Amino acid sequence: MTPIVILDAGHGGSDPGGGNNTQFTEKDMNLQISLYQYNRFLALNIPVAITRTTDVTLTSEARTALVRNSSARYCISNHINSGGGRGSEVIYSIYGSPTFPQLIQDALTAEGMPNRRIFTRTLPDNPRLDYYFMHRETGSVETVIVEYGFADNALDANKLQQDWRDLAEGVVRAFCTYAKLPYQPPTTPTSNPKPTTAPTLAPTTSPGNGADWKQEAVNWLYDQGFLTDEQWRQQPDQPLPLWAHAVILKRLFEKLKP
């Protein structure tokens, strides 16, 4: 199915990005946010694509080619800022509209991340071209770059570390409003879920110390591509929602097809 929107998890692999601190690296936070949004769009039955699902290196040319050739109408490129500042920024093409960026900023503000600015930028030597490669080389795709906050600002960094799911959900909500698509909030909380009691499963082999066998099984699901949302990797006892079970079964069926 042709995607309506493509998500870009900025940086990755040998490129950690600049929005790093002791709590997270930009490339990992970008991927967490993007995978969360990817699964939310799937749950909302919105056709979606993504530039990367793992920690791989993408050249700027390869990244923009994925977006340009995706047939998507929109692209959300996720990033974390640095360099001194506070709050989120949304950057749009000089040939675009501030409508979608404003909806994103309103949603992020509602989730507790202050709004720093919305802006466009031209090449210094050619005012008819966008400054940013993601705008200049993604063709007719309406691309917005979302900087969720500043990694070198303690308030922003703590907000991102604790509430990145809420911020990611805000952008999903803003997109649905802009594209006039039905939106339903997630059936499970988007903030860090509280531990719940789950039945204990006995391992079939001697696993060694602790619950290593649980993590090994969960990691296998990610390695096989059955799970992609990183929020579940460190929560082996957290029950999955019904839609996630459906996605896993669908991917398993597709893998088994001749």
UniProtKB/TrEMBL annotation:
GO terms for molecular function: N-acetylmuramoyl-L-alanine amidase activity. Keywords: Hydrolase. One of its GO terms (cellular component) is outer membrane-bounded periplasmic space. GO terms for biological process: peptidoglycan catabolic process. Residues 64-176 form the MurNAc-LAA domain. Coiled coil: none annotated. Residues 183-210 are annotated as: Disordered. Pfam families: Amidase_3. Residues 189-207 have a biased composition (Low complexity). This is MurNAc-LAA domain-containing protein.
